[in-house]
Design a protein that fits this description.
β7 and β8 form a beta hairpin. The chain contains 34 helices and twelve strands. The strands form three sheets. An eight-stranded antiparallel sheet has the order 5-9-8-7-6-12-11-10. A two-stranded antiparallel sheet has the order 1-2. A two-stranded antiparallel ribbon has the order 3-4. α21 (440-450) packs parallel to α27. By secondary structure, it is of the alpha+beta class. The chain is flat and about 110 Å long. Residues 410-421 have a biased composition (Low complexity).
Length: 867
């Protein structure tokens, strides 16, 4: 142990003496190097004398291995003589011999750590070449360690990963098995012999280990190998039997998707922070797998990208994801609708393979007969547990008996030209759930028009993802009905310029036949590929249907969405973003029915806003509208949606309105007001947009007016910005009262209700002893929402509700850091004021009601241009 302490001091000594003086200290440095070299020689000689490792000498062997690794690493960067000695003495061979003669676990641990340290820190190429040659490293890779010990397995995986970090086109050949000096890959690539590349073979044995750190290290190792680009290795990993690794990866991924669906289903029954964290953890695993697939594909190994794509389609998308959008009851394992919508978004967003994206788009348009045929098949909508397949059967009854709030959405119509194509008169894809010709694309639109909030959000996420997937051909996006208007014009213009009759006619005509605007050749190509995948013909209910009809179906579904009252404002904003992407600068696509429905919905929402001018938070209504106006404009004009698709999986946060169902609280009223304002702002934007006008940056509202001379605020000498504690005011309108903020401690105040513009306050002022009718404000609370009430048994008592002066939930997301649910524990305060007599109490009540009325009128006046 004394030798160990001396060695630890050497780097510090070197740092202090070199290279401060190139005359004296350089000689000292050379002397130090010589001394270090002598230590290496001593340790090596002593190590060679060890014939068997036992309890007596194991501590020395461990210390020798550790010290040699440190000294060789240091020497590699300062003096080549160190490693030359290492090679001359065949120290690698000694390491292997020590491992063979030892049956002690700690020796195996130390040797693997020693090798990892040396390989990671060696910079000299010749040193790395030596380490990988002579088959010593391959021997250690294939050595039969006892992996039942978790620590040993961790050291072993680190050792393999350290090797992979030094691989390049020159060094990787040193780890390939040879015979008589010739590489065997010309034969082994065809025979599939596993001994060709031990590093890869041994590593993927642990690719699906239960410990996530092990799996991550193995994936990093394989990516290092794939990105080397060695032809022999590429052929080895992409052919049987080793290509099964990629198939097993997709199977493992499929099992994780099924597990995610189970977690989401259980979380809907047990709301809480733990449920949310469990979902987010499962989501991280899903996305990590997809990013790994993407990295593997980006390595460019022939056939591997195709193998991964085929496996994802055959094992996940065709049998599980797409059927879950339309089948009410499927055999386990199954996925819920919302889980499938999320997975579809993730796969398209992360796994950027052109053929995969276009094949999925084709599958959304056409119905492969591989989907289970069932006369009672139905849309997987309105399912409990955010897509739990167990509750899917409830949708049929709910679909036949739609709520009154959704009745208007079912009145939407499509172009009269589409009626001959056997589409229903409302323009939204038919809900003939018993038909085997029902396409998944129609399920997405059906969710938008009649699904619950989570299903709407998931469907909009899928449509937005498809719209932003650059790997999708424009013809496929057009066939789905979501090609943006500017791209449609560009496409028609190009067709007209190259002399295509259909393009020229479409450019100068608003009407076009279904044949001339029909499905393009690219769509037919991917339909044929889809046919090849499933092995049988695909039912195609929309062959010959114009993409223009599909565009109007999407537009009809979005207009229907904006007319629904049971969908959250956040989800409606997502629909607004999608609409602005499809129609960025023109109102030409809206027909008279669209305009009427949007106008009616806007009028209804305007009435709700007018009600809020007399509501609990009327003093903040104008400010909230201005803030939400800017946010909504940024949201719908942004380049991408605001919300990550994974949030559709999280259980809904319990709102204050749910928690206070029995007694209305100001917090619940505030949440409702904010929700109303968000919907109003969006519909106002759409109203302006539908008229072809430019959307202003600020809402049109009237500025504040001067305080009337005869107002109580003027009598109290109140000046902008309003009441603050310790402000001196006039108590000419004050009413003496008593209140106890603590049990048994009553205090005497003068009570005032004051309004100034859109603001208002309940004031408790303490009269100044030396100045008559003047006082200091001690307590102030918002006037709006105070709900004054005289006590039934004590007519001199006035009860007031005291709400917060600002929103406690403004800009607060449902989920905080790490997905933890943010709870709201705020409750309303209460004042009980005791006046001298009944008349004083009634006068105070009358004063409050008068000031509340003045405040409400001023709020309504400010919003008059907007309303």
């Amino acid at each position: 142990m004394r030798m160990r302490k001396e060695i630890d001091l050497f780097p510090l000594e070197i740092e202090l003496i070199y290279p401060s003086d190139l005359t004296n200290h350089y000689l000292k440095f050379l002397k130090l190097l010589t001394m270090l070299a002598d230590i290496v020689r001593f340790l090596t000689d002593q190590l060679m004398k060890v014939q068997t490792v036992n309890d007596v000498n194991k501590d020395f062997v461990i210390e020798a291995l550790r010290s040699i690794a440190e000294l060789i690493t240091y020497g590699d960067q300062h003096d080549n003589a160190y490693f030359e000695f290492f090679m001359e003495k065949q120290v690698m061979g000694e390491f292997v011999r020590i491992l063979k003669t030892s049956r002690t676990l700690i020796i195996s641990l130390q040797l693997l750590q020693t090798m990892s340290i040396m390989i990671q820190n060696l910079k000299n190429e010749h040193a790395i070449y030596y380490m990988f040659s002579n088959e010593h490293v391959n021997y250690l890779i294939t050595y039969s360690f006892d992996f039942r010990n978790e620590e040993l397995l961790s050291y072993y995986i680190s050792f393999l990963r350290a090797i992979s970090g030094k691989l390049n086109k020159d060094t990787i050949s040193l780890l390939l098995k040879t015979e008589n000096g010739e590489y065997l890959y010309m034969y082994i690539a065809h025979l599939g012999r596993s001994s060709f590349f031990p590093l890869y073979i041994e590593a993927i044995r642990f690719a699906f280990h239960e410990e996530s750190m092990i799996r991550t290290a193995v994936r990093a190792l394989t990516l290092n190998i794939y990105h080397v680009g060695d032809d022999a290795v590429n052929r080895f990993v992409s052919r049987a039997p080793h290509a099964d690794y990629f198939l097993n990866l997709v199977k493992f991924f499929r099992d994780q998707c099924i597990h995610l669906n189970l977690v989401v289903s259980n979380a809907s029954k047990n709301l809480g922070v733990e449920s949310t964290s469990t979902i987010l953890s499962a989501v991280d695993e899903i996305e990590d797998n997809l990013y790994y697939f993407s990295d593997v594909v980006s390595a460019g190994i022939p056939d591997v990208g195709r193998l991964i794509m085929d496996s994802v389609l055959r094992l996940l998308i065709f049998p599980l994801i797409l059927p879950s959008l339309r089948i009410g009851a499927v055999k386990e394992p199954s996925l819920g609708a919302v889980t499938s919508l999320y997975l579809l978004c993730c796969i398209l967003r992360i796994l950027k393979i052109k053929d995969l994206a276009n094949t999925v788009a084709a599958a959304l348009l056409y119905c492969p007969d591989i989907f289970p045929q069932n006369s009672e098949a139905e849309l997987n909508g309105n399912m409990l547990g955010h897509g739990s397949s167990d509750a899917a059967s409830q949708y049929s009854d709910e679909n036949n008996c739609t709520s009154e709030s959704d009745a208007r959405s079912s009145e939407l119509s499509v172009l009269t030209s589409s009626s001959s194509l056997n589409h229903p008169p409302n323009g939204v894809p038919g809900h003939d759930c018993g038909s085997t010709q029902f396409a998944p694309r129609e399920a997405l639109l059906s969710f938008v028009t009649s699904g619950d909030d989570v299903q709407v959000s998931g469907s909009l996420s899928v449509l937005a993802t498809l719209l932003q997937t650059k790997e999708l051909d424009e013809s496929m996006v057009d066939a789905l009905g979501i090609l943006p208007q500017r791209k449609q014009h560009k496409k028609k213009l190009l067709q007209a310029l190259v002399g295509e009759d259909s393009g020229e006619e479409q450019l100068f005509s608003s009407e076009s036949s279904g044949v001339k605007d029909g499905i393009s050749g690219e769509l037919d190509i991917y339909l044929q590929k889809l046919k090849d995948y499933v092995g049988i013909s695909c039912a195609s209910p929309e062959v010959g249907v114009s993409p223009r009809v599909h565009r109007f179906q999407v537009l009809d579904a979005l207009v229907s969405l904006f007319c629904r009252s049971n969908i959250s404002a956040e989800t409606l904003w997502d629909g607004g973003w999608l609409l602005r992407q499809l129609l960025p600068y023109s109102e030409a696509e809206f027909n008279s029915r669209h305009l009427r429905l949007l106008k009616d919905s806007f009028r209804n929402c305007t009435n709700h806003v007018i009600e809020e001018t007399r509501g609990t938070w009327s003093d903040l209504l104008v400010t909230t509208i201005c803030d939400e106006w800017r946010k909504c404009k940024r949201a719908i004009e942004a380049s991408s949606p605001r919300k990550d698709p994974k949030f559709v999986l999280l259980p809904p946060n319990k709102s204050a309105s749910d928690e206070n169902a029995s007694c209305e609280s100001s917090i619940a009223a505030g949440e409702r007001m904010c929700e109303t304002v968000k919907v109003f702002v969006l519909l106002h934007h759409l109203h302006i947009f539908s008229l072809g006008r430019v959307l202003p940056d600020q809402p049109p509202v009237f500025p504040a007016v001067d305080i009337p001379e005869n107002s109580r605020a003027k009598n109290a000498d109140l000046n902008p910005p309003g009441v603050k504690p310790n402000t001196e005011i006039n108590l000419v309108d004050g009413m003496p009262c008593r209140i106890a903020f603590e049990r048994g401690k009553e205090r005497h105040f003068h009570f005032l209700a004051l309004s100034m513009g859109t603001s208002g306050w309940l004031v408790l002022a303490e009269e100044l002893p030396m100045i008559s009718r003047r006082g200091i404000v001690r307590v102030a609370a918002p006037l709006a929402g105070c709900n004054p009430r005289i006590d039934d048994k004590h007519p001199r008592w006035l009860h007031l509700r005291i709400r917060p002066s600002s929103f406690p939930f403004t800009d607060t997301p449902k989920y905080g850091a790490h997905g933890k649910v943010k709870s709201k524990s705020l409750v309303d305060g209460r004042w009980t004021l005791a006046f001298r007599d009944e008349e004083s109490c009634k006068h105070a009540l009358s004063m409050i009601l008068e000031e509340v009325k003045l405040q409400s009128h001023e709020v309504e006046r400010s919003l008059r241009p907007l309303l």
